[in-house]
Q: What sequence folds into this?
C-alpha cells in the first residue's frame, strides 16, 4: 500500500528523473521503512514524510526543466531574430483580433442583464394574417392578462417623452416610458428610494400624476436631492409627484434600446373607454414573465387559443390573429448575434491562417535542427523530452505573441468602443476583463500547442541514424515540404474564405449606398421640436389642432426666412428615423366584411412644403400645401407603391380613403409621390399615405422639423433655437441630426463588418502569399543540387520553371478549392448582412478565385525564376 | 528559479571555480560531507547524515535524489562501478563518490561557514 502510494507519487516527477532514479528512490524508501519497523506509527511517518517530500520536489524539478528549455528557446530565438519576430508578429495579429472578439462577444452578448431572471421575461407581439408581429391594443392586453395562465406579471408599455420645466433651468426633454403598475415587479428591480406604482395610480385621473426617476436624471436635473421624494416636478406644465428613484442600472437595455434611453416612468393609467385604448389601436408593447413550467412555445400555443376566442367575440377587431413570444435577451440581443457570429468565424479563420504560417516557420526550424535533434536522441535524450522541449519553445513563442496580442487587443477594443456600430448594445463598457484574460490564456496555449504539434510529426519520421550520417536530408526536405505545402494550402483556404466574405459584404454595402432613399438627403438638417404644456392642451380637440398647427407654422415660417435656408417643414416620423405608425387603409366603395382585413399603410402627418423640402418627386396630382386647412376638404397623398398595388387599373386621384377605423373621415387622394424608404435602405417600401397636419384627427405635437439649407448646420440650429424660444420658451429642441449621421447609423453594422472583414482578408491573403513564397523558396534552396543535375542532364530552364511552379501552384489550388467550399458552407452566417447579392454569388466566387490564383502564381514565380537561373557549374562549385 | 539554475548548472564553463556553488543548501552540504569518507548508496547517505547530525537533519529520498542528480550532472559526484557482494546488496542501489570538484566545493563551503561563524562570534561577543 505504502509502496504503491510512493510509486504513484513518483509519476509526478519528470520522466527523465524517473527513468534514472525512481528505482533508487523506492529502494531507499523501503530501506527506511524497514529500519523503522519497530512501530507501525514510525513506518507511516516515513511514508508520509517521503510523500510530502516528493510532492515538494516534483514542481521544483519541472520548473528547473522549464527554465532550462526556456533559456534554450530564447537562445534559439535570438539566433534567428527576424524569423522569431515575424512569427511573434503574425501570431500576435491573430491572437489580438481573437482576444478583442472574445471581449466584444463577452460584453455585448454574454454580460448579464440587470433584471431578475431575465430569461423568463418575454415580449408578446400580435400577429395578423401571418404578417410581421406588431404591438397590441390596450383592451387586448387587459384580456390577455385576465385569460392567459402561462404568462404572469404582465406589463404594458407605451413610448413617451416628457418635457421637464421649472427649477429655473432650461426646459429638458427626456425619453420616458408609460408603464402599467406591475412593470417594476416584471423586471424585478425596485426603486432604490421610494416605491414603484400602485394599482390605484394606474387609472385615469389625478392619481396617475406620479413618476419614478432614473438615477441619472435624479443626479443631473435634481442634483441628487434626497428630499425629492413626494415633491411635485413639472412635466409638460403638469405637476407629477416623485414617488421613487431607481438605483443606478448598468445595461438597462429594455429602457435604453427599446425606449431610446428612457429616464422617467409614469403610470399608463388608460381609460378602457378612451379612443386610443381600442383593440386595433396597436401601440403598446406587452411583456410578462413565464409562469413556472411554461416556455415560449407553450405560451404561444395558449395565446393562439385566447386570440381565437377573442376573434370570435370581436370579429371586426381581429383577423387571423396570433401571438409571437420572444425571450427578452433574444429581443434585445438577437439582432447583433448573427453579425458577431460571422465576425467570430472570420477571426477564427485569421487565427488559423496565422497559426498555419507560424507552424510552417517552426517546421522549417525543426528541419534545420534535424542534426541537433538526432545527436541528442543518439545521446539518450528520450523522444518525450524532445517533444516537451519543442512544445515549450512554441508555447514560449505563443506567450510572447499573446502578450503582444493582448496589447493589440486593448487597442482594438478601444477602437471598437469608439467606432463600433451605434446600433450594437453595450459597446461602451467593452474591455479586457478577467473572463477575457482567461479566454486569452486558453487561446494562447491552444495556439502554442497547434503550432508546436506540426514540427513534432517531422520528429516522428526521423531515424536518428540516417540523420547523423547526413543521409535522409533529401527525404527530410521532402517531408518538410509536404507538410509546409499542406499548411500553405490551409492558409490559402482561409484567405479565400475571408475574401469571399469580405467581397460579399463590400458589394452589399456598395449596393446599399447605391439605393436611392426616395428623397435628396444632402444639406438637410433635422431636429425634434415637440410642443407640450398647458397651451397645447387648452380647449377642445379642434382648438388643440389649431394651436399645434399655428405653433409649427410660426417656427417654420421664421426658420425658412433664415439666411441660407431654402425651405423648412415638419413630419411626424422622419424617413429612416425609425418608428412609423400603421393605419388601416379603407378605400371608399370597397367595404371589407372584416375591417381588420383592410391593407395597412404607413401614415405620415406633414406640414406644407414637406415634399419640396425633402425633394420627394411628385408623380401625379399635387403636393399638400397651404390650401389644406382644418376645415377645407380632407385630402391625402399616397406613394407610388400604394397607387400601383391598391388602385390597379383605376386612377387613384379623386378616390376617397379612410385611415384607421373604416368609418373615419374620408380623405380625397390629390397626389401621388415617389416611394420613400422609411424603414431602412435594405427593406421593401410598403404603402404610404401623407395627410396635412391641419387635417389630422388630433393635434400632432410631436414633430420632426426638416430644413434644407446651404449654411452651417450648427449656426442654423442655434438660430432655430432662438426662434422657438421667442415663440414658446418652454419647448426644447432635441435630437439634432444631419442625414449623413442617419445614414451612418443605418449602415453602421455593415460598414463595420465589411471594414473588419476586408482587413482580415487582406492579412490572410498576405500570410498565404508569404507562406507560399517562403516554403517554395526554401524548397528551391534545398533542391539546388537536384536542379543542377537536371540542368546538367539537359533539362531546359523552362522545364525547371514549370516544375517549381507546378509544385507551388498545386497546394494553392487545392487550398483555393477548399476555401471556396468552406465559404459556401459558411455563407449562412452572412445572411443577415448581405444585401442585393446572394451569399453564393457566382461573380464573387469567380473573382476571389482569380485573385487568389493570381496572387499564388506571383508568389511561386520568384522561386521558380530563381530555380531556372541555377547553373550546374555553380552547384558543383558549392558542393 | 533562474537564480537556482544559473547557480547550480554551470558545468560547461572551462575554469572551475567552487565559489559558483556557494552557498550550498544544508541538504547539499550534508550530501557532500556524507560522501567525504568514501562511496555510499542513497540510504547509507541518509543514515550517515542522520547519525552525524544526531537526527537534526533528516534527508528524504526525493530531496536526496534531486541533489544527487544535480551533482552528477555538474560532476561534483560520480557513480561508482564497484559493487559489494550481490548477496549483501540490493541490485536497485547505485553507489556514489565525491569527485575532485565535489571535494573543492565541500571545502569552500566549510571555509565559508567557518568565516561566517567567526564573524558571528566576534559580533555576539561584543554584545
A:
Amino acid at each position: 500500500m505504502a509502496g504503491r502510494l510512493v510509486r504513484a507519487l513518483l509519476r509526478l516527477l519528470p520522466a527523465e528523473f524517473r527513468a534514472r532514479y525512481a528505482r533508487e528512490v523506492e529502494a531507499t524508501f523501503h530501506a527506511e521503512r524497514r529500519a523503522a519497523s519497530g512501530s507501525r506509527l514510525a513506518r507511516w511517518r516515513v511514508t508520509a514524510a517521503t510523500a510530502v517530500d516528493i510532492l515538494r520536489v516534483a514542481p521544483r524539478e519541472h520548473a528547473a526543466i522549464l527554465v532550462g528549455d526556456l533559456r534554450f528557446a530564447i537562445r534559439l530565438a535570438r539566433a534567428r531574430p527576424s524569423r522569431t519576430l515575424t512569427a511573434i508578429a503574425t501570431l500576435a495579429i491573430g491572437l489580438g483580433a481573437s482576444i478583442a472578439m472574445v471581449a466584444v462577444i463577452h460584453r455585448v452578448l454574454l454580460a448579464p442583464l440587470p433584471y431578475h431572471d431575465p430569461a423568463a421575461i418575454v415580449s408578446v407581439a400580435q400577429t395578423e394574417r401571418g404578417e410581421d408581429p406588431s404591438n397590441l391594443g390596450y383592451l387586448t392586453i387587459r384580456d390577455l392578462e385576465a385569460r392567459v395562465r402561462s404568462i404572469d406579471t404582465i406589463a404594458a408599455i407605451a413610448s413617451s417623452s416628457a418635457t421637464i420645466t421649472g427649477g429655473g433651468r432650461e426646459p429638458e426633454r427626456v425619453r420616458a416610458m408609460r408603464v402599467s403598475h406591475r412593470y417594476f415587479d416584471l423586471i424585478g428591480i425596485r426603486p432604490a428610494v421610494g416605491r414603484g406604482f400602485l394599482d390605484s395610480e394606474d387609472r385615469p385621473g389625478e392619481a396617475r400624476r406620479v413618476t419614478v426617476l432614473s438615477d441619472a436624471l435624479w443626479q443631473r436635473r435634481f442634483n441628487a436631492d434626497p428630499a425629492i421624494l413626494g415633491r411635485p416636478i413639472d412635466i409638460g406644465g403638469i405637476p407629477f409627484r416623485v414617488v421613487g428613484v431607481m438605483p443606478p442600472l448598468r445595461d438597462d437595455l429594455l429602457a435604453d434600446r427599446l425606449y431610446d434611453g428612457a429616464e422617467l416612468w409614469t403610470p399608463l393609467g388608460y381609460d378602457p373607454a378612451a379612443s386610443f385604448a381600442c383593440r386595433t389601436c396597436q401601440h403598446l408593447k406587452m411583456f410578462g414573465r413565464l409562469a413556472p413550467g411554461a416556455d415560449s412555445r407553450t405560451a404561444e400555443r395558449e395565446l393562439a387559443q385566447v386570440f381565437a376566442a377573442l376573434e370570435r367575440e370581436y370579429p371586426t377587431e381581429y383577423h387571423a390573429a396570433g401571438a409571437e413570444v420572444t425571450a427578452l435577451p433574444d429581443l434585445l440581443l438577437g439582432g447583433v448575434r448573427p453579425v458577431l457570429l460571422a465576425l467570430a468565424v472570420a477571426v477564427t479563420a485569421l487565427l488559423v491562417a496565422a497559426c498555419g504560417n507560424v507552424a510552417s516557420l517552426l517546421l522549417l526550424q525543426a528541419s534545420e535542427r534535424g542534426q541537433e535533434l538526432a545527436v541528442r536522441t543518439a545521446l539518450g535524450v528520450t523522444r518525450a523530452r524532445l517533444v516537451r522541449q519543442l512544445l515549450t519553445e512554441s508555447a514560449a513563442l505563443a506567450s510572447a505573441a499573446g502578450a503582444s496580442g493582448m496589447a493589440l487587443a486593448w487597442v482594438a477594443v478601444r477602437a471598437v468602443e469608439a467606432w463600433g456600430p451605434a446600433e450594437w448594445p453595450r459597446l461602451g463598457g467593452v474591455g479586457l476583463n478577467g473572463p477575457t484574460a482567461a479566454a486569452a490564456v486558453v487561446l494562447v496555449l491552444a495556439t502554442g500547442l497547434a503550432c508546436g504539434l506540426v514540427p513534432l510529426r517531422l520528429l516522428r519520421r526521423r531515424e536518428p541514424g540516417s540523420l547523423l550520417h547526413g543521409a535522409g536530408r533529401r527525404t527530410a526536405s521532402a517531408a518538410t515540404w509536404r507538410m509546409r505545402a499542406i499548411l500553405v494550402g490551409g492558409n490559402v483556404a482561409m484567405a479565400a474564405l475571408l475574401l469571399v466574405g469580405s467581397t460579399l459584404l463590400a458589394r452589399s454595402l456598395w449596393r446599399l449606398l447605391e439605393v436611392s432613399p426616395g428623397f435628396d438627403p444632402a444639406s438637410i438638417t433635422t431636429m425634434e421640436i415637440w410642443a407640450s404644456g398647458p397651451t397645447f392642451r387648452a380647449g377642445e380637440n379642434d382648438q388643440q389642432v389649431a394651436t399645434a398647427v399655428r405653433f409649427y407654422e410660426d417656427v417654420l415660417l421664421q426658420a425658412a426666412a433664415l439666411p441660407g435656408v431654402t425651405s423648412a417643414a415638419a413630419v411626424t416620423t422622419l424617413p429612416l428615423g425609425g418608428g412609423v405608425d400603421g393605419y388601416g387603409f379603407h378605400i371608399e366603395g370597397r367595404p371589407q366584411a372584416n375591417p381588420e382585413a383592410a391593407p395597412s399603410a404607413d401614415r405620415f402627418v406633414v406640414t406644407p412644403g414637406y415634399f419640396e423640402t425633402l425633394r420627394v418627386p411628385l408623380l401625379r396630382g399635387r403636393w399638400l400645401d397651404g390650401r389644406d386647412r382644418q376645415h377645407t376638404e380632407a385630402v391625402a397623398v399616397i406613394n407610388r407603391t400604394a397607387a400601383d398595388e391598391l388602385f390597379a387599373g383605376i386612377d387613384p386621384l379623386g378616390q376617397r380613403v379612410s385611415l384607421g377605423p373604416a368609418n373615419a373621415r374620408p380623405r380625397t387622394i390629390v397626389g401621388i409621390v415617389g416611394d420613400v424608404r422609411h424603414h431602412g435602405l435594405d427593406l421593401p417600401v410598403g404603402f404610404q399615405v401623407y395627410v396635412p397636419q391641419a387635417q389630422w384627427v388630433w393635434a400632432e405635437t410631436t414633430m420632426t422639423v426638416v430644413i434644407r439649407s446651404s449654411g452651417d448646420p450648427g449656426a442654423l440650429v442655434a438660430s432655430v433655437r432662438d426662434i422657438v424660444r421667442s415663440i414658446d420658451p418652454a419647448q426644447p429642441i432635441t435630437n439634432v441630426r444631419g442625414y449623413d449621421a442617419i445614414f451612418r447609423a443605418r449602415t453602421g453594422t455593415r460598414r463595420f463588418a465589411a471594414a473588419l472583414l476586408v482587413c482580415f482578408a487582406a492579412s490572410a491573403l498576405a500570410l498565404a502569399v508569404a507562406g507560399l513564397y517562403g516554403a517554395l523558396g526554401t524548397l528551391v534552396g534545398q533542391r539546388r543540387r537536384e536542379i543542377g543535375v537536371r540542368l546538367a542532364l539537359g533539362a531546359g530552364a523552362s522545364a525547371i520553371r514549370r516544375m517549381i511552379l507546378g509544385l507551388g501552384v498545386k497546394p494553392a489550388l487545392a487550398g483555393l478549392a477548399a476555401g471556396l467550399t468552406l465559404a459556401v458552407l459558411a455563407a449562412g452566417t452572412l445572411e443577415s448582412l448581405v444585401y442585393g447579392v446572394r451569399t453564393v454569388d457566382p461573380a464573387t466566387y469567380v473573382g476571389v478565385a482569380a485573385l487568389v490564383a493570381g496572387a499564388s502564381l506571383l508568389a511561386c514565380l520568384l522561386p521558380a525564376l530563381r530555380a531556372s537561373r541555377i547553373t550546374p557549374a555553380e552547384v558543383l562549385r558549392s558542393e | 528559479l533562474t537564480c537556482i539554475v544559473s547557480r547550480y548548472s554551470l558545468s560547461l564553463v572551462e575554469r572551475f571555480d567552487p565559489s559558483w556553488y556557494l552557498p550550498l543548501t544544508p541538504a547539499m552540504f550534508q550530501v557532500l560531507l556524507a560522501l567525504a569518507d568514501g562511496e555510499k548508496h542513497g540510504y547509507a547517505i541518509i543514515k550517515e547524515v542522520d547519525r552525524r547530525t544526531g537526527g537534526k537533519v533528516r534527508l528524504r529520498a526525493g530531496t536526496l535524489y534531486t541533489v544527487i542528480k544535480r551533482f552528477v550532472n555538474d560532476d561534483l559526484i560520480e557513480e561508482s562501478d564497484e559493487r559489494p557482494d550481490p548477496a549483501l546488496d540490493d541490485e536497485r542501489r547505485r553507489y556514489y563518490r565525491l569527485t575532485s570538484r565535489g571535494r573543492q566545493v565541500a571545502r569552500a563551503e566549510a571555509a565559508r561557514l567557518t568565516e561566517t561563524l567567526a564573524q558571528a562570534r566576534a559580533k555576539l561577543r561584543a554584545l
Chain B is about 55% helix and 10% strand.
